[in-house]
Amino acid sequence: DIQLTQSPSFLSASVGDRVTITCRASQGIRSDVAWYQQKPGKAPKLLIYGASTLQSGVPSRFSGSGSGTDFTLTLSTLQPEDFATYYCQQLNSYPRTFGQGTKVDIK
Amino acid sequence: QVQLVESGGGVVQPGKSLRLSCAASGFAFSRYGMHWVRQAPGKGLEWVAVTYFDGSDKHYAESVKGRFTISRDNSKNTVYLQMNSLRAEDTALYFCARDSRYCSNNNCSSFADNWGQGVLVTVSS
Protein backbone atom coordinates (compact mmCIF):
# COMPACT_ATOMS: atom_id res chain seq x y z
CA ASP A 1 0.00 0.00 0.00
CA ILE A 2 1.09 3.58 -0.65
CA GLN A 3 1.76 5.53 2.54
CA LEU A 4 1.27 9.30 2.71
CA THR A 5 3.03 11.45 5.30
CA GLN A 6 1.80 14.98 5.86
CA SER A 7 3.75 17.71 7.61
CA PRO A 8 3.25 19.44 9.82
CA SER A 9 0.52 17.63 11.75
CA PHE A 10 -0.47 20.88 13.38
CA LEU A 11 0.21 24.51 12.60
CA SER A 12 -0.81 27.76 14.18
CA ALA A 13 -1.30 30.74 11.87
CA SER A 14 -2.93 34.15 11.67
CA VAL A 15 -5.42 35.57 9.21
CA GLY A 16 -3.49 36.84 6.20
CA ASP A 17 -0.63 34.37 6.57
CA ARG A 18 0.66 32.19 3.76
CA VAL A 19 0.44 28.53 4.72
CA THR A 20 2.07 25.51 3.11
CA ILE A 21 1.31 21.87 3.88
CA THR A 22 3.37 19.04 2.43
CA CYS A 23 2.47 15.46 1.59
CA ARG A 24 5.08 12.84 0.81
CA ALA A 25 4.23 9.49 -0.80
CA SER A 26 6.11 6.28 -0.10
CA GLN A 27 6.49 5.70 -3.84
CA GLY A 28 6.03 7.70 -7.03
CA ILE A 29 2.37 8.44 -7.81
CA ARG A 30 2.68 10.83 -10.80
CA SER A 31 0.26 13.70 -10.07
CA ASP A 32 -2.42 11.46 -8.56
CA VAL A 33 -3.17 13.43 -5.41
CA ALA A 34 -6.26 15.17 -4.05
CA TRP A 35 -6.56 17.60 -1.15
CA TYR A 36 -9.59 17.87 1.14
CA GLN A 37 -10.64 20.34 3.81
CA GLN A 38 -12.65 19.16 6.80
CA LYS A 39 -14.28 21.23 9.52
CA PRO A 40 -15.45 19.72 12.82
CA GLY A 41 -18.60 17.66 12.47
CA LYS A 42 -18.69 18.11 8.70
CA ALA A 43 -17.95 15.99 5.66
CA PRO A 44 -14.66 16.54 3.84
CA LYS A 45 -14.72 19.01 0.99
CA LEU A 46 -12.68 18.45 -2.16
CA LEU A 47 -10.25 21.31 -2.88
CA ILE A 48 -7.81 20.03 -5.48
CA TYR A 49 -7.35 16.92 -7.63
CA GLY A 50 -4.62 15.86 -10.03
CA ALA A 51 -2.20 17.60 -7.65
CA SER A 52 -2.95 21.08 -9.01
CA THR A 53 -6.46 21.30 -10.50
CA LEU A 54 -8.75 23.47 -8.43
CA GLN A 55 -12.21 22.00 -7.92
CA SER A 56 -15.02 24.20 -9.19
CA GLY A 57 -16.10 26.79 -6.64
CA VAL A 58 -12.92 26.61 -4.54
CA PRO A 59 -11.30 30.02 -3.96
CA SER A 60 -8.15 30.75 -5.93
CA ARG A 61 -6.15 31.36 -2.74
CA PHE A 62 -5.86 27.55 -2.61
CA SER A 63 -3.25 26.00 -4.88
CA GLY A 64 -1.53 22.65 -5.20
CA SER A 65 1.69 21.49 -6.77
CA GLY A 66 4.03 18.54 -7.02
CA SER A 67 4.49 15.23 -8.76
CA GLY A 68 6.18 11.93 -8.07
CA THR A 69 6.49 11.70 -4.29
CA ASP A 70 6.32 15.29 -3.02
CA PHE A 71 3.23 17.48 -3.02
CA THR A 72 2.21 20.77 -1.47
CA LEU A 73 -1.02 22.58 -0.66
CA THR A 74 -0.65 26.34 -0.34
CA LEU A 75 -3.11 28.85 1.07
CA SER A 76 -1.85 32.20 -0.16
CA THR A 77 -3.73 34.45 2.29
CA LEU A 78 -5.38 32.63 5.19
CA GLN A 79 -9.01 33.59 5.79
CA PRO A 80 -11.06 32.97 8.97
CA GLU A 81 -13.05 30.23 7.23
CA ASP A 82 -9.85 28.33 6.33
CA PHE A 83 -9.16 27.15 9.88
CA ALA A 84 -9.77 23.43 9.48
CA THR A 85 -8.02 20.10 9.01
CA TYR A 86 -6.53 19.28 5.61
CA TYR A 87 -5.93 15.82 4.17
CA CYS A 88 -4.08 14.60 1.10
CA GLN A 89 -5.18 11.39 -0.61
CA GLN A 90 -3.41 9.38 -3.27
CA LEU A 91 -5.49 8.56 -6.35
CA ASN A 92 -2.91 6.29 -7.96
CA SER A 93 -3.98 2.87 -6.76
CA TYR A 94 -6.21 0.98 -4.37
CA PRO A 95 -6.42 1.13 -1.42
CA ARG A 96 -6.86 4.91 -1.69
CA THR A 97 -4.88 6.01 1.36
CA PHE A 98 -5.06 9.38 3.11
CA GLY A 99 -2.40 11.35 4.89
CA GLN A 100 -2.84 11.68 8.65
CA GLY A 101 -4.10 15.26 8.37
CA THR A 102 -2.86 18.76 9.17
CA LYS A 103 -4.86 20.88 11.58
CA VAL A 104 -4.62 24.61 10.91
CA ASP A 105 -5.46 26.55 14.05
CA ILE A 106 -5.71 30.21 14.95
CA LYS A 107 -2.57 31.71 16.47
CA GLN B 1 -27.72 19.41 -6.87
CA VAL B 2 -25.84 16.29 -5.82
CA GLN B 3 -27.18 14.85 -2.59
CA LEU B 4 -25.97 11.79 -0.71
CA VAL B 5 -27.80 10.64 2.42
CA GLU B 6 -26.45 7.82 4.56
CA SER B 7 -28.58 5.72 6.90
CA GLY B 8 -28.53 2.47 8.85
CA GLY B 9 -26.04 3.34 11.55
CA GLY B 10 -26.42 2.65 15.24
CA VAL B 11 -25.04 0.75 18.19
CA VAL B 12 -24.18 -2.91 17.58
CA GLN B 13 -22.41 -5.59 19.61
CA PRO B 14 -19.02 -6.96 18.57
CA GLY B 15 -19.36 -9.82 16.13
CA LYS B 16 -22.73 -8.65 14.84
CA SER B 17 -23.68 -7.21 11.46
CA LEU B 18 -25.02 -3.94 10.14
CA ARG B 19 -25.91 -2.65 6.69
CA LEU B 20 -25.42 0.98 5.74
CA SER B 21 -27.25 2.63 2.87
CA CYS B 22 -26.46 5.75 0.89
CA ALA B 23 -29.28 7.21 -1.20
CA ALA B 24 -28.14 9.40 -4.09
CA SER B 25 -29.99 12.10 -6.00
CA GLY B 26 -29.28 15.01 -8.31
CA PHE B 27 -27.03 13.15 -10.74
CA ALA B 28 -26.95 10.10 -13.03
CA PHE B 29 -26.11 7.58 -10.33
CA SER B 30 -25.55 4.64 -12.70
CA ARG B 31 -22.66 6.49 -14.37
CA TYR B 32 -20.56 6.96 -11.25
CA GLY B 33 -18.49 4.83 -8.95
CA MET B 34 -19.13 5.21 -5.23
CA HIS B 35 -16.85 5.12 -2.19
CA TRP B 36 -17.22 4.51 1.52
CA VAL B 37 -14.79 6.37 3.80
CA ARG B 38 -14.81 6.29 7.59
CA GLN B 39 -13.49 8.39 10.45
CA ALA B 40 -13.03 7.03 13.95
CA PRO B 41 -13.76 9.52 16.76
CA GLY B 42 -11.02 12.13 16.89
CA LYS B 43 -9.02 10.42 14.15
CA GLY B 44 -8.27 10.94 10.48
CA LEU B 45 -9.96 9.71 7.34
CA GLU B 46 -9.72 6.05 6.33
CA TRP B 47 -10.79 4.91 2.88
CA VAL B 48 -12.93 1.74 3.13
CA ALA B 49 -14.24 0.56 -0.24
CA VAL B 50 -15.25 1.49 -3.78
CA THR B 51 -17.62 0.05 -6.35
CA TYR B 52 -17.45 0.87 -10.04
CA PHE B 53 -20.41 2.47 -11.77
CA ASP B 54 -21.92 -0.88 -12.79
CA GLY B 55 -20.74 -2.90 -9.80
CA SER B 56 -18.39 -4.91 -12.01
CA ASP B 57 -15.35 -4.22 -9.86
CA LYS B 58 -14.81 -3.47 -6.19
CA HIS B 59 -11.85 -2.75 -3.95
CA TYR B 60 -11.45 -2.81 -0.17
CA ALA B 61 -9.12 -1.62 2.53
CA GLU B 62 -7.15 -4.45 4.08
CA SER B 63 -8.72 -3.70 7.46
CA VAL B 64 -12.21 -4.65 6.21
CA LYS B 65 -11.47 -7.17 3.48
CA GLY B 66 -13.46 -10.37 3.99
CA ARG B 67 -15.82 -8.71 6.50
CA PHE B 68 -17.37 -5.80 4.58
CA THR B 69 -19.11 -5.92 1.20
CA ILE B 70 -19.95 -2.94 -0.95
CA SER B 71 -22.84 -3.25 -3.40
CA ARG B 72 -25.21 -1.03 -5.32
CA ASP B 73 -28.69 -1.01 -6.80
CA ASN B 74 -28.78 1.38 -9.73
CA SER B 75 -32.57 1.05 -9.98
CA LYS B 76 -32.80 2.54 -6.47
CA ASN B 77 -29.87 5.00 -6.77
CA THR B 78 -28.41 3.46 -3.63
CA VAL B 79 -25.07 2.08 -2.55
CA TYR B 80 -24.72 -0.24 0.43
CA LEU B 81 -22.05 -1.34 2.86
CA GLN B 82 -22.71 -4.69 4.49
CA MET B 83 -20.56 -4.93 7.60
CA ASN B 84 -20.15 -8.35 9.23
CA SER B 85 -18.08 -9.53 12.20
CA LEU B 86 -17.92 -6.00 13.53
CA ARG B 87 -15.15 -5.02 15.90
CA ALA B 88 -14.70 -2.16 18.35
CA GLU B 89 -12.18 -0.60 15.94
CA ASP B 90 -14.92 -0.30 13.30
CA THR B 91 -16.56 2.39 15.43
CA ALA B 92 -16.60 5.46 13.21
CA LEU B 93 -18.56 7.97 11.23
CA TYR B 94 -19.09 6.42 7.79
CA PHE B 95 -19.31 8.65 4.72
CA CYS B 96 -20.36 7.74 1.21
CA ALA B 97 -18.87 9.75 -1.63
CA ARG B 98 -19.26 9.98 -5.39
CA ASP B 99 -16.32 8.94 -7.58
CA SER B 100 -15.54 11.24 -10.51
CA ARG B 101 -13.04 10.40 -13.23
CA TYR B 102 -10.48 12.72 -14.74
CA CYS B 103 -7.65 12.38 -17.25
CA SER B 104 -4.42 14.33 -17.48
CA ASN B 105 -1.53 13.73 -19.87
CA ASN B 106 -3.09 10.46 -21.05
CA ASN B 107 -3.35 9.17 -17.50
CA CYS B 108 -6.76 8.74 -15.91
CA SER B 109 -7.80 8.42 -12.29
CA SER B 110 -10.70 9.45 -10.09
CA PHE B 111 -11.49 11.33 -6.91
CA ALA B 112 -14.32 11.69 -4.40
CA ASP B 113 -15.99 14.96 -5.29
CA ASN B 114 -19.26 14.92 -3.32
CA TRP B 115 -19.78 13.50 0.14
CA GLY B 116 -22.71 12.69 2.37
CA GLN B 117 -22.90 13.97 5.94
CA GLY B 118 -22.07 10.59 7.41
CA VAL B 119 -23.71 7.99 9.64
CA LEU B 120 -22.36 6.88 13.00
CA VAL B 121 -21.61 3.24 13.75
CA THR B 122 -20.73 2.30 17.31
CA VAL B 123 -19.54 -1.22 18.07
CA SER B 124 -19.81 -1.87 21.78
CA SER B 125 -21.01 -4.51 24.17
Characterise this structure.
The complex is a heterodimer of chains A (107) and B (125). Chain A is globular and about 35 Å long. The mean pLDDT of chain A is 97. The termini of chain A are far apart. In chain A, strand 4 and strand 5 form a beta hairpin. In chain A, the strands form two sheets. Chain A has a six-stranded mixed sheet with strand order 2-10-9-4-5-6, with no helix packed on it. Chain A has no helices and ten strands. Chain A has strands spanning 4-7, 10-13, 19-25, 33-38, 45-49, 53-54, 62-67, 70-75, 85-90, 102-106. Chain A has 107 residues and is mainly beta. Chain B is mainly beta. Helices cover 0% and strands 58% of the residues of chain B. In chain B, strands 2, 4, 5, 6, 9, 10 and 11 form a seven-stranded mixed sheet that branches. In chain B, a hairpin with a 4-residue loop joins strand 7 and strand 8. Chain B is globular. The chains are: A mainly beta (107), B mainly beta (125). Chain A binds chain B through residues 1, 30-32, 34, 36, 38, 42-46, 49-50, 53, 55, 87, 89, 91-92, 94-101, and chain B through 35, 37, 44-47, 50, 59-62, 95, 102, 104-105, 107, 109-118.
Draw up the topology in text.
The complex is a heterodimer of chains A (107) and B (125).
Chain A (H helix, E strand, L loop, with lengths): L3 E4 L2 E4 L5 E7 L7 E6 L6 E5 L3 E2 L7 E6 L2 E6 L9 E6 L11 E5 L1
Parallel strand pairs in A: 2-10
Antiparallel strand pairs in A: 1-3, 3-8, 4-5, 4-9, 5-6, 7-8, 9-10
Chain B lengths: L2 E5 L2 E3 L5 E8 L7 E7 L5 E7 L6 E3 L7 E6 L4 E6 L8 E13 L2 E9 L3 E5 L2
Main attributes of the structure:
heterodimer, A: 107 residues, mainly beta, 4-stranded antiparallel beta sheet, 0% helix, B: 125 residues, 7-stranded mixed beta sheet, globular
Number of strands of chain A: 10
Q: What is the rounded distance between the termini of chain B?
A: 40 Å
**Quaternary assembly:** heterodimer
Largest interface: chains, residues each = A-B, 28 and 26 residues
The chain-level structural class of chain B is mainly beta
Radius of gyration of chain A: 13 Å
In whole angstroms, the N-to-C terminal distance of chain A is 36 Å
Number of helices of chain A: 0
- Give the uncertain stretches of chain A in residue-range form: none
Number of helices of chain B: 0
How much is the average pLDDT of chain B?
Answer: 97
> What is the share of helical residues of chain A?
under 10%
